[in-house]
Amino acid sequence: MTAAPTHASLDPSGFESRHFGIDDIFYSRTDGRGIILAANAVFQRVSVYDWSDLIGAPHNVIRHPDMPRGVFHLMWSILGDGKPFCGYIKNKAEDGSHYWVLAVACPLEDGFLSVRIKPGTEMFRQAQQIYTDLRHRERNENLPPEASSDALLQAFESAGYSDYASFMTKALTEETKHRDIALQRPADWRLRSILSIKEGVKEIEDHAGDVVRIFKQTNQIPYNMRLQAGRLEGTDGPISVISNNHRQMTQSLADAVATFSEKSLLGNDYLIQAEFLHGVSRVQHDLLQSFGLEPVIDGQDKAQEKALLSRQQMEFVSMAHKAVVEVSDRVSAFSKICNDVRRLKAGLEMTRVMCKIERSRIAERVDGLDEIVQQLGKAQTDLDHLLSKMDGAVQQILEAAERLTQSRQRAA
C-alpha cells in the first residue's frame, strides 16, 4: 500500500468532484495557443462551466494550483516534438472542486487534442505523491519549470522507470486495463498480443546474452587443450590438432557470434511505442463510441469532430501496427541468424567427441582432459536449452504479430 502523502494539499479547501465517474470519458480540442475550440458534453459537466465560459477560453482555466509546473513543461516539450503525451493531471472545476484525469494529449496540424479518463491504479497514487513532493520543491526552492521537469524525470527514474516514455506507457496500459475491469468489459486481446511480443523479445534478449557468454567461455578451451597436449603427447599429437582446429573454428566464427549478439537486440523501443500508441488509439476509440451517443451541441459541428477523432484514431492504429511489424521483421531475420549459432554448437560437439575418442585411448588418469570434455558437454546442453527457449519465444512473437496483422487486414 502506498504511504500517505507527507505534505497536505496546497489547496485544502478543494473537494473531489462528484460529476466524474469511471465510465466517463471526455475530450477537448484547442488551437495552437491552447484556446478551447471544441469539447464534448462530459467535459462541460465535469468542469461545471457553462459552454459560453469554455469555448474560446484558454485551456488553463481548469488548471489546479496543486499541479507542478514541471509536468506542463514536460508535456509541452513532448507535444512540441510532434509526439503524444500521457500523464496524470489534477484539474479544478468552476465550483471549486477538483478532479484527477489521465490525459492523453496529441498534436494536430493546427492545435491539440486531449482525451481524459478517470484514473484509479497504484501508479496514479505513486504519481500523486511525486507531484506533491515536487510542488513543494517548486515553492520552497523556487524551481523554474525546466528544473522542475528535470526533477520530475529524476523522480520517475528513482521510482524504477528508465524514462518518461516507459512510465507513461505503463500508466496508460494499467489505467485502460483498470477501466475495462471496472466496466466489466473483456480484456483487450490486442494489448495482450503486444505484451506477449514484449515478453518474447525480453526472453530472447536475456537468453542471447547467455549464449554469447557460453561461447566466450569456450574460447579458453583450446589453450587448456594445448597444455594437456604438451604434457601427454608433445606438440604434434592428436589433441594438439583438435585444439588447433577448435581455435581456428572459434576465430572464424567470431563474427557470427558478434552478429548474433547485435541482432538479438530486437527493438524494445518499438514495442514501448506500439504499446503506447495502441493505448492512445484505445482511449480515442472509446471516446468515439461515447461521443456518438451524445446530443448535438449548439455551435459545434459534431460530424466534423467525429471525423477528426476517427481519422486520428486510425492514424495511431496504423502507427502501432507499423511498430509491431518492425519488431516482427527483426525477429524473423534473427531466427535465421540462430542457424549460425547451431553451426557453432555443432563445432563444440565435434570437438567434444574427438576429445572423448582420444581420452579413451589414454590409459592413465587425465583430469584436465576429462574436465574439458565435461565443459564442452555442459556448453552443448546449455546451448540446446537456450536455443529451444529462444525458438519458442520467436514462435510466440510471430504468432502474436500475425494475429494483429490479420485483424488489421479484416478491419481494412
TrEMBL record:
One short Pfam name that applies is PAS_3
Keyword terms, alphabetized: Receptor
Ranges for domain PAS fold-3 come to 38-109
Q: What is this protein called?
A: Aerotaxis receptor Aer
Q: Does the keyword ATP-binding apply?
A: no
Sorted alphabetically, which InterPro entries does this protein's record hold?
A: PAS-like_dom_sf (IPR035965), PAS_fold_3 (IPR013655)
The answer on whether this UniProt entry bears the keyword Protein transport reads no
